[in-house]
Amino acid sequence: MGYVSDRNMSQWLPPTMAHFVTGTWADAAGQVAGTIAKTKAAADVTGVLTIPIVIPSNSDQYKGCYLKTIDIYFEIVTAAATAMAALVHKVTLPADGAAIGTVEELAFSYDTGHDAAAERIDVDQHKMTLTLTTAEWLDNDEVIQVQLTIDAAATGTFEYLGARANFELRL
After folding, report:
1. Which of 19, 65, 94, 102 allows an S-S link to 55, with CB 3.0 to 4.6 Å?
2. Residue 128: alpha-carbon gap to chain centroid
3. pTM above 0.90, yes or no
């Protein structure tokens, strides 16, 4: 068996894999026929969406996945949100009997269409790309999660369509 090194791998993360807190979230059809979404009902409340980045990891140095960017697909419908911000967390998994490790915030930049706060909250269909400042080799005892905090308008809905992790794969 040979060695695999592919610099252009992607993994789709459907909306059903994410975790939703605060607000009323429901599985729904997307705005486009044949698509699915997780929809936050219209209400003046701040919702939190956590996206686990589920990609292969490896305990060997420079093997597994080298995470570079994360694309997040969403729609804001009816009224612009008040605010939205993202965080990228790396968590170290514990040994048996130990506590989860301290959450490390990874530095990233927004794409040019979302680098200003007003661009993230407008009524539109969005593909927001988070580019890690330093790409991450995912060790087998680490987990990456993206957390979105959405301060919605009273009459606006937020529809999360899914995310895509973009990485280099070495096996």
Report:
1. 65
2. 9
3. yes
Collapsing DSSP to helix, strand or coil, 52 comes out as strand
Cα 112 to Cα 30, 65, 141, 167: the distances in Å are 25, 25, 33, 20
Residue type, 2: G
Q: Which residues of 131-168 are buried (b: 16+ CB within 10 A; e: fewer)?
A: ebeeebbbbeeebbbbbbebebbeebbbbbbbbbbbbb
Contact 11, 54 (CB under 8 A): yes
Cα–Cα dist 75/123, whole Å: 7
- Are 93 and 143 in contact by the 8 Å Cβ rule? The answer is yes
d(CA 50, CA 116): 21
